[in-house]
Write a structure and sequence with these properties.
Two copies of one chain form a homodimer. Chain A is mostly helical. The first copy, chain A, is built from eight helices and four strands. Strand 3 of chain A pairs antiparallel with strand 4 of chain B. Chain A binds a DNA duplex through helix 4 and helix 5.
Chain lengths: 158, 158
Amino acid sequence: MSRAEQLRDLFTECGISAALEVVGERWSFLILRGAFNGLRHFEEFQTNLGIARNILSNRLGRLVEHGILRRDPDPADRRKVTYRLTEKGRDLLPVLLSLRQWGERWISGMPSNPVLVDRYTRKPIAPIIVQSADGRELSLRDMEWVDRDDLEREADAA
Amino acid sequence: MSRAEQLRDLFTECGISAALEVVGERWSFLILRGAFNGLRHFEEFQTNLGIARNILSNRLGRLVEHGILRRDPDPADRRKVTYRLTEKGRDLLPVLLSLRQWGERWISGMPSNPVLVDRYTRKPIAPIIVQSADGRELSLRDMEWVDRDDLEREADAA
DNA sequence: CCTTTCAGTTGCGATATGCAACCTAGTATG
DNA sequence: CATACTAGGTTGCATATCGCAACTGAAAGG
């Protein structure tokens, strides 16, 4: 595959642009961070994040539309609405945490509060890293972009 | 304290907000994806991403200001400028890859092309996960948010 | 009833984005 | 040398999105 072809593929069918369509807007990550931290109700998000009410309304709606949050009426108090993460939403945790760790390391320079700990050992979670299939840590030097078809041909040849 | 300062504090107190202040704008992640895949020059970014020239100019400038990209004139052709990732920028790889993996799994439904492989084993990299300090995979059930001061008190009590 | 709470919606000005045209320095061509 | 072309922007202007404050409407609570 030529370099030009590789680049074209890269930009037409990448999971990153697909993901950004859904969670790439201004407040989406912060709303999700709130949800991971236990925020459930509109007013909780609004006062905690300081986000404008109309924007919050719009973002919650989009996250629900995309199946990242579930919106349930509270049976005990019919004014209240409960937003909570779906499995699809919970699966964004590595993204949120790696972003947070990067921000702590390179921008704020210190760990934020509160800390996410292993419930049993009470120790903070490890830094999120890129690993090989057999669990070794990989840096950029250890990796290479390969076309899927080329990779299959390699495997067949071996 | 002015409203602007209040907002600034709000933005810097959490690693996620701090990170988003720098890389949270519309095209930033896509520009970084390009950089990770070898794009170096203004025109390369522009034609491959289809981004407006003024926005690209502004984003590249911001990424350089924040030390995520380095901007060097090309000594061989003094019209050309080379943008490349700094260590701070390269350290965003787990964020980009976990976002990509999430998008592949939940939005596009299939792995994108090309694939990032371990250069030596030729196998695709592993899914990015959250791990304990001793390397066990952690799910949300295994974790807990703890105030840092409370955690210290726990440690002292033990 | 009367008040408060919750989850929004509406109107409107400020900000950000996208597009096309233009600009400047440097390079290739004849 | 004159001319054309290239790389990396900038400028003007239309549109889209955001943020704030005020308002709404249904449901509790007293």
